[in-house]
Amino acid sequence: MSDPVRIIAYRKENSNFAHLHNQGIIRTREAPGIANTSSGENKVDQTLIWIILIVILIAMLFWPQWQARRRREKQMAAMRVGSQVMTVGGIIGKLTYINTQENRARIEIAPGVEIQVVVNAIGQVLEPAPNNTTISSDEDEEVKAALAE
Known about the structure:
The chain has four helices and five strands. By secondary structure, it is an alpha+beta fold. It has three domains: about 1-35, no CATH class; about 35-80; about 80-149, SH3 type barrels. β2 (about 90-100) and β3 (about 105-110) form a beta hairpin. The longest helix is centred in the middle third of the chain and has 40 residues, at about 40-80. It is rod-shaped and about 95 Å long.
């Protein structure tokens, strides 16, 4: 059965050609220039390619979120009393009080007009506060008393 014409004829007659080839009953010649690689090496290569693709996909999906979170944390750390801020609703004002434990802040939007917002509602810091701006504890207690009434 070494004649190529007979092998082709046998392939057409018997659909079990691959089974016979794997058992060594029928032998075919390798094309010149093609390396004979074992299936173990191919499996390792394929697994490695899939792992690399999955890592790239995860990085592409989550990297922007990680960057946004870092920017937000940096912005929240720079927020101090006296900073010019803008809320997510577009209200611009001066930050007069901030308490991260209670998650509350007050923004002066006009002279004598303050609004109380949740800290997460502050979208961005437009101008950072001067370093020497502080509110005394007496003023803070007066404001709390006025809000309690």
